[in-house]
Amino acid sequence: MNIIINGKDVAARKGETVLEAALREGYDIPHLCYHPALKPEGNCRLCLVEVGGKVTTACTTTVRDGMVIELDTEEVNKHRRTVLEMLKALVPKSPILEELSAKFGLGKVRLASSDEVCIKCGLCVRVCAELVGADALAQEGRGTETFFNPPFNEPSPDCVGCTACAFVCPVQCIKYEKTDDKITIWGKTMDRLRCTKCGASLDLTAEHMELIKKRGTNLHPENLNLCDTCSRAETLRTMKTVVESQLTLS
Amino acid sequence: MEKFKSPSELESFVNGLESAVDHNKPKISVCRGTGCIASGASKVSAKFTQVVKDKNIHADVVETGCHGFCERGPLVVIHPSETFYQKVKETDVEEILDKTLAGGQIIPRLQYRDEAKIAYEKEKEVPFYKDQMRVVFGMNGHIDPTRIEDYMSFGGYKAFAQVITKGNPASVIDTVVASGLRGRGGAGFPAGLKWKSTAEASGEPKYIICNADEGDPGAFMDRSIMEGNPHSVLEGMLIGAYAIGASIGYIYIRNEYPLALERLEIALNQAREYGLLGENILGSGFNFDILISRGGGAFVCGESTALMESIEGRVGRPRVKWKRTAISGLWGKPTNINNVETWANVPYIFLRGVDWYTSIGTGDVSKSPWNGSKGTKIFSLVGKVNNTGLVEVPMGTTLRTIVFDIGGGIKDSKKGRTFKAVQTGGPSGGCIPSEFLDIGVDFDELTRLGSMMGSGGLIVMDDRTCMVEVARYFVDFLKEESCGKCTPCREGLRAMSNILNRIVRGHGRMEDLDLLEDLATTMVVASFCNLGQTAANPVLSTLKYFRNEYIDHIQTKTCTARQCTELIKFTINPETCTGCTICARKCPTSAISGETKKVHVVDQSKCVQCGVCFDVCNFNAVNVLSGPEIKDKLGV
Ligand SMILES: Cc1cc2nc3c(=O)[nH]c(=O)nc-3n(C[C@H](O)[C@H](O)[C@H](O)COP(=O)(O)O)c2cc1C
Ligand code: SF4
Ligand code: SF4
Ligand code: FES
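The joint structure predicted for all components is written out below.
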């Protein structure tokens, strides 16, 4: 099917969102709470576009054939700037927000600063629940007292130390610490497993390994116990055996 | 109890009960709504029951639901004379039975008197009731909500029996569309059109929900319907479920409503015993039951998708609607959600007919239910009016009628208080100034004026109500109640709250007004759900109609209404002070000194600006200064 972005016909796939189609086709729509691997929630409200003359969020709008989408109308720019201004007042020192402000012409922030670090996009909670499957984080509280952290902001028994939350966080505000044999995140310290071949420390904790096994995986769990180098060598060896055995057979 | 096996069996049973009612038999109806219970109605009704029994008096005592005039409770009405007594005490009971019931005499002490001290005898003559049209509340003063037979003796469940007899769900929907019934929970969406979408959606089972979250502070019409006439809600839901093809209904009720919950549970059990809920209802093959789900009471849980999240066992926060909830709602199944009052309207549409229903209200809905507002609406009338309580009026009734006739005008008008505005629609509604007192209140007029119907809150404000402070109050409420999910609502409210708090303290800047408008328009357009989209209404409407008050606060640090404590000073006018000493006695910080018959003086260092002296002075001798006056008169 086709959609029309800024007056141009653009190919779109059934079931995808306006944001997905636009990004794939090379259009730039600012977005902070969207991640291709996670279900969109429409939290940051930055991905504003005009659909059929109405301002809405691109990440929560499913494409329809012939849909008319405008990315840079005066309305869109105005509201996008105000949303950005609100975010900058919330988190004043963030490189990504600076970059977006420069790009979309936001001048001085007129609002009182809250001096927080998290923009409350919710990606960390979602990646932990939807992809990792640990469900160790939660949106807590209400209104301006909304926080994203493990329940009660205490080290969570469910956290497996995978650092996926820190990885997806658009403002990089989730801090963790890695030593040769330990990883500490959200106040919880866990042991890093070691490569069963060479003994190098892995980016994998025993807790995470447990969870992966419990949830089932396409990978051979034994392979997860290896560091990158050994894993590659091991794969190569297996392939070689397979190829050789094929050759002997023929 | 026998289950009814067919609609005709139910209908003739109801007819039997209806004709058995002896309308001449004396009846004492005692209000036992939450308000009257709080003022002691249980003791009053117990006493009536006991004395009537002991003395073998020929009369029925009925413990009814809310009559609406809660501030005058406990309320008692004697039928058939319709004698209306207010503030009745246990000790008045024998006298009422002797004098009024037996002797036909009025007891002046218990009569309602208006501000001019005129007494009224019959309930329907009392100004509070005179201009009302009680349809949804029609039975509230007559039936015992814990007895299904009482409801039936007024024709209850007959509409449902007739709908089943006809056996045509599609025609039920057509009737609701034609009636013009629009949702009473906030947005005013035509109920029939909503039912139709769910009826036509594919997926099993289908659900219907009754939204009884009632989160607006000060609103209690839904509670009073459930407490006073729970079967009307159940019958509405039965008709709806049949039309839509739903097999399960939920009533989502807030935890703070124990009495409503209790009465609903009794009603559900009675309906099950009569076979009105369950399998093969009235032998028609229609299966339907209703479950109760209790909500934690967050304001946002009233929003339809947040409510569904909550029923499904998650935190009540709005969720993305990839499809309309009519198609994919509760557990991804087609779901129709309506408000308590919406459901309670349904039986009357069928019982009295579409022509009757469309004769009430505004517009012409013959082409589309969007073209008008039909039926009645219940408002919760509070604030600076003489009569407060629940008021049911035809859609289109003017604000003037509601405030000045039913509400009896502005409180303390003798002391010079005048009408300034009425705030409608709950916390995210707007303030409407006096030039619009003659508009007829309906969905579209209120929206046009920058406010909304919401659930029907009406707060009357007088000249001593500061409109900036009003905006600040609602914004601070919403700031706490926003679910925190999306940026414009959460951060917009935070920013607005900062700005408004600064203005009411006299630290505002002129640029703040543009800033408020920028924030507001973005919240309207970019917020995720309706809470954020409407949360700016209090600010936008006061900026539109009362901009001068904002400017006065900013430019001259003057609170026009003399309410913002940091901008006012109290002084006593030596010319008019009679030295009655009342202010000195009432001042909580003993800031006022003076001898009997001598002029009193306020010690500014002790005064906390509570305003008690102003309220108690009978000689208008207390002046409230603000802005430049303070310097002029006090030299500070
Ligand atoms: C923040 C918010 C709170 C709401 N609270 C209520 C409520 O307490 N009761 C209610 O019936 N509808 C409430 N609504 C409206 C519902 O979302 C929904 O529109 C309504 O229940 C539909 O029923 P109706 O069409 O019969 O009005 C609320 C909406 C929002 C956005
Ligand atoms: S911590 Fe990061 S990922 Fe989590 S909500 Fe805050 S900004 Fe988003
Ligand atoms: S507008 Fe946004 S923050 Fe406000 S209640 Fe709705 S989803 Fe939550
Ligand atoms: S990316 Fe769409 S709302 Fe955040």
